[in-house]
Design brief:
This protein is mainly alpha-helical. It has a domain of 59 residues: 434 Repressor (Amino-terminal Domain) (Orthogonal Bundle).
Length: 111
């Protein structure tokens, strides 16, 4: 028998359960996916440079809370913000349009 956490399920388990049971939840996850992808890229860039969120914010001339929100993946950064990040790291911002990723059909999903 697997022991359950005294506080319930993990965030990943909870999200998976909600995703199976709610079409609205799946739609919201899909809506947020591009922002999460951007957040991962920003985090990778920051960590590769060995910067804390605070040092990164100083480099960009903003606050740690702005960086935290950006890295949360739940907010849409402006093109200007992304361009400022690219410039701060001597990079260029590149935007491309790709065909959607095809996911394997899930079984037993409820709407």
């Amino acid at each position: 028998m697997t022991k359950k956490s005294p506080i319930g399920s993990t965030a990943i388990e909870s999200s998976a359960r909600r995703s199976r049971n709610s079409a609205a939840y799946r739609a919201e996850l899909a809506r947020l996916q591009p922002f999460e992808d951007i957040a991962r890229e920003v985090i990778r860039l920051r960590m590769d440079a060995g910067l804390t969120q605070e040092a990164f914010a100083q480099k960009l001339g903003t606050t740690k809370s702005v960086i935290s929100r950006l890295e949360s993946g739940h907010h849409a950064p402006s093109v200007n913000t992304l361009n400022n990040i690219a410039t701060a790291f001597h990079k260029t911002l590149s935007v491309s349009f790709q065909p959607p990723k095809v996911k394997a059909a899930s079984t037993g999903a409820k709407s």
